[in-house]
Structures are given as structure tokens and as C-alpha cells.
Design goal:
alpha+beta; elongated; seven-stranded mixed sheet
């Protein structure tokens, strides 16, 4: 009996007949997840080893020392996923919540200041703040419930990852979802109260400058952090290479906002002077704004660069398949499936004879015996088989034993040497003989190889089915290094989750800091609203948006892509870059498109605020 996901995924490989007669599919109650690939198999009596059997109870859970079954054997634990979820989505969501309670807070702060002047206490002001937050927070909870509700009705597949959320799992999580909603509402109300600026009782009422000075020393740390990330990993040992690189990247992302702030302040002064010389009020006002309020724009610009860097880093770390996995992929590219390993080797002569008789006429078997090095002698690979099998890989079969010159002509033997640890120049001995009934000594290992006579690719599913039918349920036919390829596949699955969660976190963080910057800009729009009367129109707002927000953001998109390319350059796998160059172009274009849309929205909002402005005595 096969799970529906396994039956669908293995349809091309003949999964229906690989294990025997298909009796049906496993229901949802017998699976840990709808997309789990699982099979229940009853082996033939001849292949049943009762000494290796153990009872299974409490499906999917450890019991009496028996390991878990199914997906729980290969997927990371819940703590690993929770850590990724918290790092990629929870922290950005917290940042978005903080931004939400501060956006448009100027009017609320004025009302709270009025209440305080009228004698309202801290409790009254807290109740008023919570009352204002309650309506939008409840609307947000209603929207979240609408998004989640389909999962309570049917199975929901996740995008980009091979995972389907089971409706039974979603229904069991309803109490936790309700508790999360209550906690989110309480957290928003608490944030609105705590993040409200409180004026000391005896503070002065004199107006103060809103100029935000940057730490002069912090931008100078950026080049050292960049140099440490790019060159430090090359100087570190293999065990410390990735930690040193990660520390350097963290330093770059920590010091980059201060660099952006310094550049923004410098360019603001230049733009203001240029606007004064050219008689452009928009450039003049935008430049003065950029020079006086550098952090407002720097937060949004730095967020764009940081998010581009985070997406590139997520792609980089998921692309690190390991050297052995990369070598296995290279081996597969060179020889395909023209040579397969049959494991484990069966010492039962009768089973081996049945397996040999069931093979196609153009498939031959070789027994590879690897002898450990002794003295001045290196590792020796002895290949035993019929004359036809030896000739299939261009080895001599004349005489009882013949030694090669250490440089086999067939690429498949070169790959066998590469994976047996002796190196491509190791010694190979070819001898004609039987492949069954061999016994491994203490200093050698046995591997059964299947090779095709013309060197064409063999059917891996067919050989898998034949091996399991005659050699045992654990027997399998795999390409060289397939275990590393399987590890690469597992890492690719984890990488898809990293990309999904990373994209969600990037969007949340960009929205949080972007909306914060826009909120500050809209407040500035209200402050400069009288300029529309002096200039006779609203065109000044478009100029201010273009110079103080859009232009720095477009430059940040390009700069962020270049810096990300530089940061990922030191990490290679098998001499190749795990991150495609096209990714940086996509990130730059996507960030630029988002910046244009947000700036258009900010220009429209500022224009509407100016249209409704009237002189008042505040």
C-alpha cells in the first residue's frame, strides 16, 4: 500500500509494481501529512527475516527504543522549524506591529497632550489609547481569520514547498489560533501604550531641533566589516570559514544603515544647494529635509539593501549542498546511469544467481573489491566479472589476472576510483571470475556494480525492482554517490522553506520600515503644505518625493544587489557559485518596482493632505 504522494511522485519510475502487487492507497489517518511519501510492504516469504523484525506501536512516535517512522525520520525537529519561523517571520511581524502603532500617531499624541493638560490621569490616557487601537486591531484579526478559514475546510497546499496543510491538523490547532489572536490583540494594545512618548512632568516646553545626528565613528566600521566578510573567510580554516563569513555579513548589515545615513545627509546638502542655484523649490526643500532628517530616509533605504542581502544569503545558504553532493552531481552528469551500485552485497549464492538471471541481456555485473593500503602500496581496486562484463568497461580479460596501467580508458572506472577513495590514478586489477559467493576480509570491502555493455543509461527503477525482488527488501540500485544526492535533495527541501519564510520576512520588514518612513514623510507633507499656496500648485510634492525618497531607494536597490554579489562571491561549491547572477537582477528590479509604487502612493497622500490644508492657530 502506497501513500497518494508517493504513488504520484513515482509514477514515471514504475512505483506501482516496484514492491509487488499494489493493494491500495494509505488514507489520511495513516499519514503524518497529506504529502508524505510512505509505503507498507509485505515481503515474500523467501526474503522475510524474522530475526530483524520488531513491533510498531503509536504510529510516528518513539516507543520502546524504536525510532520514529515516516517523515519524522528525515525532517528537522519542531524546534528547528520554530527557530526559523521566529527568525524569518515573527521578528519582522513584531517590527511591523511597532510601526503600525506609530504610523499617524501625531494626532493621537496631540489629543493625549490635551487630555493631560485637562488633568486626565495615566489610567484614563491608557484607556483612550487602547480604545483607539481596538478597532483596527479587531479588523486585522477578522482579516487573519478570513485568510486562515480555508484551511479549516479543506487541505491547503503551500506555494514553492512540497507541503500540504492537512485540514485535520488545522482544526486541532483552532484553540492555539484563538489564543494567538488574543495574544496579538494584547500585544498591539500594549505596544500602543508603551511606545507613546511621555513628557516628563517638569520638562521644558521650548521647541527643540529635530535634527538627528549620526554617530561619526559607526560608518567607518563598514569597510572593515566588508573586508572581514569577503577576505576573512578565505583566511580562516575549513571549520571556521562559515562562522567567520556569517559574522562578517552580520557586521555589514549592522553598519550599513549608518553609511546610508551619512551619504543621505551629504547628498541632501548638495541637492539643496543645486535647487537654490537652479531655482527649484522641490529640490531645495527635499535637500534640506534629507540633510536634517537623515535617519527617516535611511531607515527605508537601509531596509531595502538589507532585505536584498537577506534574500541573497538565504539563497546562498540553501545552495550549499556540500562538496560530496556537488561531486555526486558532477559524476551523474559525466556517466549518467550507465554504472549503478547494488547494495547491500548478498553473500547468498542462490539469491545472487537469481538476480543475475533476471537482469537484461545488456546489463552485466562486476564485483569491486577495495583493499586498504599497506606499507608503500596504495589502495587497490580489483574488478571481478565475466569477460563480457570486463569488456563492457574496456578492461582486459585475457588470462586469470591482468593489471591495468592505472589510467583506465572508460570514464566509469575513473568515477569508481574517485568514489572508492583511491584517487583517479589508483591501481586497478581486472580478473575474470564469479561475482557471487564472495567473502570480505578484514581489510577489504565488497561492492556490486551493474554496467551496461554499450555504455547507455540503464533503467534505475527496473534495477531497483529486480534487486528488491531477488536480493531482499533493503536491496537497491543507485548511481554513484547517491546518498549525497539524497542529502542534497533534503537540503533543497529545507532550502525551499528558508526561501518561503525569508520572502515573507523580507516583505514584512520592508513594509514595516517603509511605512514608517512614509508616515514620517506624510507628516512632513503636512508641515510643508503651506508651500503649495506659495508655489501655486502641488508639483512640489512630486519633486520632493522623487529626490528625497525615490532616487535614494533606486540607488539602494542597485547598491544592495552589487553588495550582495560581493558578499556571496567568497562562497563556492565545487568551483561554482550557488547563487545565480540573475537573482541579483530580479532583486534589484523587484525592489525598484516596489519603491516606485510606494513613492507614488506617498505623493498622492501628500497631495491630498495639502489640498485639505487650511491655516489654523495651532
Amino acid at each position: 500500500m502506497l501513500s497518494p504522494a508517493l504513488l504520484k511522485a513515482g509514477e514515471r519510475e514504475g512505483i506501482r509494481t516496484r514492491y509487488g502487487k499494489l493493494s491500495g492507497t494509505i488514507g489520511v489517518d495513516g499519514l503524518e501529512a497529506p504529502e508524505e511519501r510512505f509505503a507498507y510492504i509485505r515481503p515474500r516469504v523467501q526474503l522475510l527475516d524474522k530475526q530483524d523484525m520488531h513491533p510498531v506501536a503509536a504510529f510516528g512516535l518513539p516507543r520502546d527504543g524504536i525510532a520514529s517512522l515516516g517523515e519524522s525520520m528525515s525532517i528537522p525537529g519542531i524546534s528547528v522549524f520554530a527557530a526559523g519561523l521566529a527568525g524569518f517571520t515573527l521578528l519582522p511581524a513584531v517590527a511591523l506591529a511597532v510601526a503600525a502603532v506609530r504610523i499617524g500617531s501625531a494626532a493621537r499624541e496631540k489629543r493625549l497632550a490635551l487630555f493631560e493638560a485637562l488633568g486626565a490621569g495615566a489610567g484614563s490616557r491608557m484607556v483612550f489609547t487602547v480604545g483607539e487601537v481596538a478597532v483596527p486591531a479587531l479588523l486585522g484579526l477578522a482579516a487573519a481569520a478570513a485568510v486562515i478559514s480555508p484551511a479549516l475546510v479543506t487541505d491547503v497546499p503551500f506555494p514553492w514547498v512540497d507541503f500540504t496543510l492537512s485540514v485535520q491538523d488545522a482544526r486541532r490547532a483552532v484553540p492555539w489560533l484563538a489564543a494567538a489572536g488574543v495574544a496579538a490583540f494584547a500585544a498591539l494594545a500594549m505596544a500602543a501604550v508603551l511606545f507613546h512618548p511621555h513628557r516628563p512632568a517638569e520638562s521644558s516646553t521650548r521647541p527643540v531641533s529635530r535634527f538627528q545626528r549620526q554617530r561619526a565613528w559607526l560608518p567607518w566600521l563598514f569597510p572593515f566589516a566588508m573586508l572581514f566578510a569577503v577576505r576573512g573567510s578565505e583566511l580562516a580554516g575549513d571549520d571556521l570559514r562559515l562562522p567567520v563569513y556569517a559574522l562578517g555579513v552580520a557586521g555589514v548589515l549592522a553598519t550599513l544603515p549608518s553609511v546610508i545615513a551619512a551619504l543621505t545627509g551629504w547628498s541632501g546638502g548638495w541637492i539643496a544647494r543645486a535647487g537654490h542655484r537652479l531655482g527649484r523649490p522641490g529640490m531645495l526643500v527635499a535637500g534640506r529635509r534629507m540633510a536634517a532628517q537623515t535617519r527617516v530616509i535611511a531607515r527605508f533605504v537601509a531596509a531595502v539593501i538589507v532585505m536584498i542581502g537577506l534574500v541573497a544569503q538565504a539563497q546562498l545558504w540553501t545552495g550549499l549542498l556540500g562538496e560530496n553532493a556537488a561531486n555526486a552531481m558532477a559524476t551523474r552528469d559525466r556517466i549518467g546511469t550507465s554504472l549503478l551500485t547494488i547494495s547491500p552485497y548478498s553473500e547468498d549464492r542462490e539469491q545472487m544467481q537469481e538476480f543475475t538471471a533476471a537482469l537484461p541481456a545488456d546489463v552485466h555485473l562486476l564485483l569491486a573489491q577495495q583493499t586498504a593500503p599497506s606499507g608503500n602500496n596504495g589502495e587497490t581496486l580489483t574488478l571481478t566479472g565475466s569477460c563480457a562484463a570486463l569488456k563492457a568497461v574496456e578492461l582486459p580479460c585475457s588470462g586469470a589476472e591482468a593489471a591495468t596501467d592505472g589510467k583506465p580508458r572508460d570514464a566509469r572506472i575513473t568515477e569508481v576510483l574517485r568514489w572508492t577513495g583511491g584517487g583517479t590514478n589508483g591501481q586497478v586489477i581486472a580478473q575474470q571470475g564469479r561475482v557471487d559467493g564472495a567473502r570480505a576480509t578484514a581489510d577489504e570491502s565488497l561492492t556490486l556494480l551493474a554496467v551496461s555493455r554499450p555504455g547507455d543509461n540503464m533503467s534505475v527503477p527496473m534495477l531497483k525492482e529486480t534487486a528488491r525482488a531477488h536480493l531482499g527488501m533493503r536491496a537497491s540500485a543507485e548511481p554513484l554517490g547517491n546518498s549525497w544526492l539524497m542529502g542534497a535533495t533534503d537540503l533543497a527541501v529545507s532550502g525551499s522553506w528558508v526561501r518561503l519564510l525569508g520572502l515573507m520576512g523580507a516583505c514584512l520588514t520592508v513594509l514595516a520600515i517603509g511605512f514608517t518612513a512614509l508616515g514620517e514623510f506624510l507628516r512632513f507633507g503636512r508641515e510643508v503644505a503651506p508651500l503649495s499656496v506659495l508655489t501655486g500648485g502641488n508639483g512640489i510634492f512630486g519633486s520632493i518625493v522623487s529626490w528625497s525618497l525615490l532616487a535614494p531607494t533606486l540607488a539602494a536597490a542597485a547598491l544592495g544587489s552589487v553588495l550582495s554579489l560581493w558578499l556571496t562571491a567568497p562562497i563556492t561549491v565545487g568551483g561554482r557559485q550557488p547563487v545565480p547572477d540573475s537573482l541579483y537582477v530580479v532583486l534589484a528590479v523587484g525592489a525598484s518596482a516596489c519603491a516606485v509604487l510606494l513613492c507614488l502612493w506617498g505623493w498622492r497622500s501628500a497631495t491630498r493632505a495639502a489640498a485639505s490644508w487650511r491655516p489654523v492657530g495651532d
